[in-house]
Amino acid sequence: MTSVEERRPRALFAGASRRWVRLLPWGVAFVLCVALLPTTIIVLTADYGLGGGVTSALAVAQAAPLLLAVVRPLHAWYVVFAADVAGALALLTVDFQERLLWPFPPMEIVGYVGLCLALGLRERRRTLVLVWLATAGANVTLGFFAPHGSGARELLLTILGGATLLLAGALRERSEVQRRLVEQETISEAERGRRTLLEERARIARELHDVVAHHMSVITVQADTAEYRLDRLPPDVREEFTTIAATARESLGEMRRLLGVLRNEDAHGELVPQPGLAQIGQLVEATARAGGPVEFTSCEVEVPEAVGLSAYRIVQEALANVVRHAPGAATHVSLSVSRPDEQRGGEWDGQRLTVLVVNDPPPEPPAAPLEASGTGHGLVGMRERVRLVGGTLDAGPLPDGGFRVAARLPLTEKDFT
């Protein structure tokens, strides 16, 4: 059922977003059909002296297919082209004045030009060339049988039809190029967002490795040295500590092998401890030295290393966005702990660290506006880090032109689950 619907031709401008644009081809075709049908009958009968029966048949064959041209212009062209040639041959049987156009009267030219417009907006370049060659060939061939001698005006249909096909075909190809460009930009943006997300996940994995590896190393050292630090350990307890140390070393090795898959060829392991809450103050000072006033409010609290690392990276990315998008703007960074009695309705059972970064509008309007939605690639990394520790993130522009980033990170094991 779907494949049949996909093969079914669509009307011209059927994909337009505005209703009047979708109805425009039908309106034009209807007006041409209604106007040309009686006009053809009157002109062929009164001016050219053609019989009424033949005139009516030619008028219907030349005007009615214009409605079909909205959906199937090539099929309509077959009918109209044959009817126009037949009409030219029929006019050879009557005696009409030399001033009248032949082989194609004016109303036929008007209908044919409208049909060429529909063809150019739908068909490919090769088809348009063949249509024009058929038109020119028929026009030149009929010129040899001109009752009053051939002239330049007899080629009017070929000239106008070719110009219309060329113009409409150029418009169609330009529209097609623009559509493909928009599609490619959309795909590129989606791929760029996906790549950013994957890179951020790999970076988080590397940082978590350093955090977890530190604890695993401590466990290994404590288990290995237990028999030397503790007096008179029973043999079974000593064996248990040996097993714990071996398991910890094996787990650490597995983590390092897994990390090797995530690292790039040019990436090297970091040999310094991962930053946490204690380093946020240094980050704020560095940003202030870069040219923007930053106010920092901290709190004394012990947090898991994963939470401290996530908080540091969130502040780091938020401050980097301020420098990029709002240089010189006053910024406020605060760390606070919300307790159950401070939360509305007891929504959380444990403590949470609230990381808040708010910047005012820049002193001078930036060259590009602040992000109006959460589509920035920097926010992708923030959301990944918040989701990693089971927290929430609220980020967006402020009414006065500033920007606000608020992350709430759980501090207890219960909240992580």
Structure, explained:
This protein is of the alpha+beta class. The chain has 3 domains: 2-185, no CATH class; 197-262; 277-416, Histidine kinase-like ATPase, C-terminal domain (Heat Shock Protein 90, 2-Layer Sandwich). It is built from 14 helices and 5 strands. The protein has helices spanning 2-7, 19-47, 52-63, 65-68, 73-91, 106-122, 125-143, 156-224, 226-229, 235-262, 280-289, 305-325, 377-388, 413-416, and strands at 294-297, 331-338, 352-359, 392-397, 403-410. The chain has a 5-stranded mixed beta sheet with strand order 1-2-3-5-4. Helix 6 packs parallel to helix 8 (156-224). The radius of gyration is 39 Å and the shape is elongated. The two termini are 47 Å apart. Mean pLDDT is 82; it is low at 1-6, 342-348 and 370-375. It catalyses: ATP + protein L-histidine = ADP + protein N-phospho-L-histidine. This is histidine kinase. InterPro entries: HATPase_C_sf, HATPase_dom, Sensor_HK_TwoCompSys, Sig_transdc_His_kin_sub3_dim/P. GO terms for molecular function: kinase activity. Keywords: ATP-binding, Kinase, Membrane, Nucleotide-binding, Phosphoprotein, Transferase, Transmembrane, Transmembrane helix, Two-component regulatory system.
